[in-house]
Amino acid sequence: MPRPNPYKDRIELLQGTLDLLILQTLQWGPRHGYGITQLIRAKSADVLRVDAGSLYPALHRLERKRWIASQWETSANKQRTRVYRLTALGKKQVLAEVSHWQRFVEAVGGILRVRQGDV
Question: If 0-12 CB within 10 Å is exposed, 13-18 middle and 19+ buried, where does residue 35 land?
Answer without folding.
Answer: middle
